[in-house]
Write a structure and sequence with these properties.
Helix content: 25-40%
Bound molecules: flavin-adenine dinucleotide
Order of helices and strands: EHEHHHEHEHEHEEEEHEEEEHEEEHHH
Shape: globular
Strand content: 15-25%
Largest sheet: 8 strands, mixed
Radius of gyration: 21 Å
Number of helices: 12
Mean pLDDT: 95
Low-confidence stretches: none
Length: 404
């Protein structure tokens, strides 16, 4: 795969829909495009259509704060996200497209003994699984992030941190465009402004896909529609353990570089990262109510500003440039749903909630493998939708929360 140069240029204009495809991917976000890339470039399956109701990667891929990491709690999750981080490490070279990958490490702050104990558990699991992770004391926190306010005191006193040297960021658009460009170069059709409205089924198979531009058929279907995963699955008659919550973020005006790591605090429900443009990207937890809306709120702006000012009080006169929201498809255990569905030719890449950008390459790679071979690889098996019936949950709430 390495170093194959595909010239820069526009993604081809949306063509007319053909009557039938070998594979139809619903959702032209990072996940759908990554799957299209692996199907076409690795498995040689090129009679593929990506159907995107809006514009390319304009959903949560466009709205996320780009935290990439593998410091989860369960061995199943660590193994999966570790493969994701490794694919990011070589992605610019693999795609011949600069995704502005910056592996500057993630520092998560502990403000209580209980948090420190849970950090030790995560650190030991991460080391066992071969990731770079350790619990650090306050002195090391100071060295890693010299501008952090360590005199907060009270309930927000910093007692230590979880240092994950593998933690990184990348440019979200570049990831999606890089995959789209290579998939299109192999003949994958990318249909923008093409919304899936319903399905025809025969027995346990999807036979027809109804869109606003006509009806098509597909040998295999992959669903990767971000915040709308619950709704689209329902159109196919599949009930998923997913509820929608808005998730917001905001950025400040550009500043000189001062923040060399990703910093997050679960207690303050706030995390910060400085973008390559110098803006401070600030995010936190989901809104506390279910809603399918991308409106941002004053409440959340004040909450995120408060958290950021606890950690970096000198930001108090800095202006905010933008605030936005995405609709996130949250599962009860904060882990994704990947693999088979009750329909034999309908595959799921869902439940990415607040944490799915980091999984874009590995989900695309492994879902493409699933479709190409008809077999769910071992690394995806724990994420099967039936885990909610079998009580085989992968609880990652503590390791996700405000760290994303
Ligand atoms: P999307 O990018 O949402 O793509 C799905 C596409 O499907 C959309 O473009 C949509 O228009 C399309 N679609 C929907 N319905 C239909 C239909 N009926 N027909 C055709 N197309 C349809 N994750 C991290 O790992 N790190 C982070 O730091 C992080 N921060 C986040 C911050 C915010 C504010 C938000 C909102 C999310 C964040 N996430 C983060 C989560 C991450 O953005 C998502 O999990 C990830 O982008 C999901 O990618 P996707 O391709 O599955 O979905």
């Amino acid at each position: 795969l390495r170093s194959r140069h595909v010239p820069y240029g526009d993604i081809p204009k949306t063509p007319d829909l053909k009557r039938a495809y070998d594979v139809v991917i619903i959702g032209g976000g990072g996940h759908g495009l990554a799957a299209a890339y692996y199907l076409s470039n690795v498995h040689g399956i090129t009679n593929v259509a990506v159907l995107e109701k809006g514009y390319l990667a304009g959903g949560n891929t466009a709205r996320n704060t780009t935290t990439i990491r593998s410091n989860y709690m369960t061995p199943e999750s660590v193994a999966f996200y570790k493969e994701g981080v490794e694919l990011y490490e070589t992605m610019s070279q693999d795609l011949g497209f600069n995704i502005m990958f910056s592996q500057r490490g993630q520092l998560t702050l502990a403000h209580s003994e209980a948090t420190l104990r849970s950090f030790h558990l995560r650190a030991e699991m991460g080391k066992y699984m071969g990731t770079k992770i350790e619990v650090v004391n306050v002195q090391t926190v100071r060295e890693l992030c010299p501008d952090l306010n360590l005199d907060i005191g009270g309930q927000h006193e910093v007692l230590g941190g979880l240092w994950h040297a593998d933690g990184a960021t990348a440019r979200h658009d570049a990831v999606a465009w890089g995959y789209a460009k290579h998939a299109a170069a192999r003949g994958v059709e990318i249909h923008q402004r093409t919304e899936v409205l319903g399905f025809e089924k025969s027995g346990d198979r999807v036979t027809e896909i109804r869109t606003n531009r006509g009806t098509i058929s597909a040998g295999q279907v992959l669903q990767a529609v971000g915040g709308l995963n619950g709704q689209v699955a329902e159109m196919a008659g599949i009930k998923l353990a997913i509820r929608c919550f808005p998730l917001q973020a905001m950025v400040t005006q550009p500043l000189k570089p001062f923040l060399n790591t990703l910093v997050s605090s679960a207690n303050l429900h706030t995390y910060l990262v400085q973008s390559s443009r110098g803006e401070i990207v600030i995010g936190g937890g989901s809104d506390p109510y279910q809603l399918a809306s991308t409106r941002s709120t004053l409440d959340q702006k004040e909450h995120l500003a408060e958290g950021a000012l606890h950690l970096f009080p000198f930001l108090h006169k800095v202006k905010l440039l933008r605030q936005w929201a995405g609709i996130t498809d949250m599962t009860p255990d904060y882990s994704p749903i990947m693999g088979a569905s009750p329909l034999t030719n309908y595959w799921l890449d869902c439940g990415w909630g607040t944490w799915g950008f980091k999984a874009t390459p590995v989900a695309g790679k492994r879902m493409a493998e699933t479709i190409a071979t008809g077999r769910v690889p071992d690394i995806l098996k724990p994420f099967d939708m039936r885990r909610f019936d079998n009580f085989a949950l992968l609880n990652e709430m503590g390791a996700t929360a405000a760290s994303h």
